[in-house]
Amino acid sequence: MIAAVVGDDAVTCDDETPAPWWSFTKTVLAAAALRMVAAGRIPLDTPLRGRTFTLRQVLQHRAGLADYGSLPAYHAAVAAGDPPWPVAELLRRVGAEQLRFEPGEGWAYSNIGYLLVRTLIEEIADEPLAPALRRLVFDPLGVTGVTVACTPADLDATAWRNPDRYHPGWVYHGLLLGSATSAALVLHHLLAGRLLPQALTAAMRQPYPVEGSVPGRPWGTAGYGLGLMIGSGEPAGRYEGHTGMGPGSTAAVFQRTDPDAARPPRTAAVLAAGHAAGVVERRAMALAAGT
After folding, report:
1. C-alpha angle with apex 108: 105 to 113, nearest 5 degrees?
2. What is the total count of domains within the chain?
3. Can you list the positions of beta strands (E) in the chain?
4. How far apart are CA 178 and CA 5, in angstroms?
5. What torsion do the CA atoms of 121, 126, 128, 132 make, to the nearest 10 degrees?
6. Is the peptide bond before 235 cis (omega within 30 degrees of 0)?
């Protein structure tokens, strides 16, 4: 495991080698989209052009969009080492135009939703994802060294390399690579309100309740904000952040955010190979809790 802990006055990390962030990328995408909301470029609560759902609903997985993670053919193609499908084929295979429920009337995790967020960011910024995220998120926060993986070779210099030649294009919303320190700094500064206006930071951190206790995971209660997993965890307390899982590794980036805590918040990022999500989440939560 690689672990980093960030407080307001100290940063500790045992290894600065970059590794995949997997779905912690969603937190960064949400932050970038909300920067555009703050600039008046995207509405948060008006249906997106040509759609029946809002950006808030997409970021909170409440738009009714499908998830390609449920497609057996997707997993078979990844396992076979096939090149990623064109986006149009992915959308056709998953039936992306058919909503699973009316927007706002349910909750279902959707990678397709965050593909839509990536597309919005790139279209409105008029630039590829990497420079858009650097300009909108990483540069304002003073975080360096984070890249977007585009080819199998991009994973070769990461902590666990890429012996199976996994193609990061299978992560359609984008796969960020960075150190544990960079991941912890992004979340720490974001939750401290150093990127977004106060109202948008608060909106990001307001959870919609979802299924709580999951076997093998440290969640008691659980909710989802705008690009954030939020709920009670172990050690006992409230945690905000995101877990990411992909072939061969897991990432967990969390801050303990109890309002009555006696000490300033701590943010921990744990990047690990060969561990179950619950193990990595527990380690990140323990570090964030200072235990």
Report:
1. 100
2. 1
3. 2-6, 11-13, 19-20, 147-149, 175-178, 208-210, 222-224, 229-233, 237-246, 249-256, 267-273
4. 15
5. -60
6. yes
Beta-bridge partners for 250? 245, 272
Which phi-psi region, left, alpha or beta, contains residue 276 (left: φ > 0; alpha: ψ -120 to 50)? beta
Confidence at residue 269, expressed as pLDDT on a 0 to 100 scale: 97
CATH label of the domain that carries residue 220 = 3.40.710.10
Q: What is the mean pLDDT of residues 165-176?
A: 97
> Would you tell me the crossing angle of helices 111-125 and 24-38 to the nearest 10 degrees?
40
- CB 4 within 8 Å of CB 253: no
Look over the chain and give the mean of its residue pLDDT values, rounded to a whole number: 95
> Does the pLDDT at position 212 exceed 80?
no
The amino acid at residue 225 is G
- Report the amino acid identity of residue 56: R
Closest CA to 267 of 244, 286, 245, 246: 286
Q: Structure tokens of 38? A: 């703050």
Per the structure, the complete domain to which residue 160 belongs is given by: 2-289
CA separation for the pair 222, 243 (Å, rounded): 13
Provide the percentage of residues in the chain whose pLDDT is more than 70: 98
Q: How does pLDDT run across 84-94, given as a tens digit for each residue?
A: 999 999 999 99
